[in-house]
Amino acid sequence: MENNHHHQCKIQQNNKNNISFESRIAAQLPAWQKRLQRLLRQHSSTPIDQVTVGQMYGGMRGVFSLITEISHVDPAMGILMRGYSIDDLLDKLPRAKDNSFPLAGGLYHLLLVDQFPTLEDAQAVESMWRERQGLPGYVIDLLRAMPPDTHPMTLFSQAILAMQPYSAAAGAYHQGISRQEYWRPMLEDALNITANLPLLAATIYNLKYRDGAEAQPDPDLDWSANFAHMIGKGANNHYKELCRLFMILHADQENGNASAHTSHLVSSTLSDLYLSCSAGLNALAGPLHGLASQETLRWLLALQSRYNGLPSQSELEAFALETLNTGKVIPGYGHGVLRSTDPRFTAQFRFAERYLPDDPIFNLVKRVYEVMPGVLQATGKIKNPYPNVDAISGTLQHHYGITQSEFCTVLFGTSRLLGLSAHAVWARALGLSIERPRALTTSLVEDMVSPSLGVDQQTVSISSNNKQN
Ligand code: HAX
């Protein structure tokens, strides 16, 4: 109880600390409002895309129908965050002295403020996060009360939802804040949620795999590396560097992917960031999405144990075909938008070559990369036979002792909420609407594309009814 009171006081104090951050966003909004008004006045009815029947049944793949200013996926170049490629971000974002990889605070500044951060800007975000660290005691109690075999993603999503009573935006809404100002308390929520993500991830890790050891942030460490410290790996400088790399790579990917879109849809109802982030995590927990990092590690471990080490190319092909022939996907390969090797895969591959060249699972990843594109291409149906971010991320974690494959997606979510929260603040600042696409039944689609298809269908059902009779 005392803990909760302490948490509330802390949130109130922090309201004052992000004024300059907030004002940098506010300063850009009048020009944005004019720009959007002009665009909509002149082009509200101009078509951007058309929707085919295949796309309606195929999960709306490739339909341009969302707006975000935060990031864009280019099929060849990969994710561009505020226009910067992964390699640019890794090269140019500010890093602390003697660190090999950037501070996540700098990336968050870029995502939220749309100005390339100085080291001072990056450190200012890191300080805002530091000041806001602390989980309410009841959240930890809640996590402890769950059955021990609960999936860590369930705990993660639950914990974010459980903190919803502290939402500044929900409170402001109930006090009657105007719609134009609503993004400000959302920014406050964004800082409070993101500040606590490594602490929450470490708390879940420790509860599940370290006998509930208390996660205690080190005030001298940055946001990303603090995760390493809080799970007892603070002395391992290479793992701290991996945490920094990981948190940059997974932070965002446009807002059409399942977790970002879920979170955007929920947020579009004016619900607060705790509700929308928790919802986004639930989508990330699906095996075709963020859970692919867990699934890849499991698949690689199964491969290793089947062949007692590194398989030959033909053994690997046989194992891959076995997966495909049992109706499963090859985890870590393919992508909804990308049409080449994911630069986030390449960045992690470079890390592995530098820090863990002899790791046996990394050597499996390498062999899979040699063989799998050919195997997938031969199926004739997969649009992108190349590896995505998840094809290697779990392997790197495994090398440093995060051997619990089910935990991989929590780290993914820790980083991804940076992007989702930035999308949400800007969607609110720009006044984007509640989402409400329309739906059709198959009969209506048949009637629209070819009325005779509908008649054929009626004949089929009449004749099958007759047979039954
Ligand atoms: N293994 C086997 N089959 C695959 C495949 C893979 N890795 N990737 C695509 N396919 C199949 C699809 O299932 C689809 O088959 P059907 O026509 O029988 O349904 C066909 O190839 C065409 O699919 P596509 O157009 O190339 O790809 P989609 O846009 O439909 O799907 C996915 C994109 C990422 C979901 C898909 O490639 C996949 O399931 N990959 C494996 C899981 C994975 O790694 N997911 C993580 C993706 C990155 C991410 O979101 N991280 O969070």
Question: What's the short version?
Answer:
The protein has 469 residues and is mostly helical.
Short descriptors:
Citrate Synthase, domain 1; Cytochrome p450-Terp, domain 2; three-stranded antiparallel sheet; 3 strands; 61% helix; 2% strand; globular; disordered N terminus; disordered C terminus; binds N-hydroxyamidocarboxymethyldethia coenzyme *A
State the helicity in percent bands. 55-70%
List the ligand species: N-hydroxyamidocarboxymethyldethia coenzyme *A
Gross morphology: globular
Please tell me the CATH architecture of the largest domain by its name: Orthogonal Bundle
Succession of helices and strands: HHHHEEEHHHHHHHHHHHHHHHHHHHH
Give the terminus-to-terminus CA distance: 68 Å
Count of discrete domains: 2
What is the CATH homology-level superfamily of the largest domain?
A: Citrate Synthase, domain 1
Beta-strand proportion: under 5%
**Major pleated sheet:** 3 strands, antiparallel
On the 0 to 100 scale, the average pLDDT is 93
What is the number of strand segments? 3
Discrete helix count: 24
